[in-house]
Every structure is written in C-alpha cells, then in structure tokens.
Amino acid sequence: MRIDPKIDYAFKCLFGSEQRKHLLIALLKAVLQIEIADVAILNPYNDKESEDDKISILDVKAKLGDGTFINVEMQVTLSANYAERSLYYWSSLYVEQLGERSEYTALARTVAIHIIDDVLFPEVPAYHVEFAICSVNDPTVRLTDRFALHTIELPKMNLQAESLSSELDGWCYFLRHAEDMDLETLPNLPDF
Length: 192
Fold this sequence. Notes:
alpha/beta; 8 strands; 6-stranded mixed beta sheet; two-stranded antiparallel sheet
C-alpha cells in the first residue's frame, strides 16, 4: 500500500467518502458490535453560532439509519488536553442537533470513536475502552444511553496477522501496518 492510513488526508479518504462508505460501515460494525445497513456521511464542519465560537472540523461525521450521530477521529499524537478535546468534539455533535424550539427528547444517541496512535491510558491493558455516563457509586446505573465515547489505542494492539480474532483486531492491524503491506500479501483482514 505504502500509504499510512493514519495520516489525516488518507484517513478521511478511506472512511469519510461516499465512494468508500462500505469501509466506514465495516469499521463501525467492528467497533460498535451492531448491524448497520447504511450510513449517511455528513459535512464534517461544525458551524460557529457566533464569531467568538471555536470552529471544529471532524475527521468523519456520519449518521446511522436509527438516527445515531457518529464522529470518528484519527489522532496520531496526543496533546496534553486530549480528554477535553474529545469531549468537546462529542458535545458539539450532540448540541448541534437542537433548534431553538426543539425538545430535549429529540436529541439522538451520539457516539465518538477516537482511534489513537499513542497510549492514553497506560494503566489499562485493553486497547479498546468504551466510556458511558454512569453512577460513581454504582456503575451499572447509567444516566443516559445518548453518550458513548470509544478510544482505541493502536500501540496496545500488538497481535500478529495470524492471531487476529475479531474484525476490530483486523482493522487495528490494518491501521498499524498498511503502509508496509502490498495487495499481493495482505493477510486475512476485514473485507476491503
């Protein structure tokens, strides 16, 4: 392949274009573990409401058939404020759903998926961590199902091609090693 799919432009071409939305669907199925028939790819720019607002440009912004909004971000290096940035991106997608007279019940589930080519949580051995809004005293009590944020730390996924056991393993392997692969020697990875 010789192109690193983690580079911003390449990532957006692979997962943020109409011509390749089947790749986005496959990636989302692997991360979310749900069936997805179709996805609408949306304009990744979150408009400013006032001149003082901060503009945000998402890597991939999409909407599932059930109304769920999706943001997929690829981050090669971590900034010191990465947690706050990830919440800001999630919240901008959530907040933009309501018009002036809209009811809060109109807010759809909003899911952020952050694929990181770095380690954000060194104390956690798993490479995929899902966050939800839960009670501190009883994590089984969820405030709402409208929030989900997934982090995928690529350096923690160090399986060899012959040891991949899930679609998500395959996608992570692809993202880590694609620039060293060629079409003739691709291992058994997700359906590209």
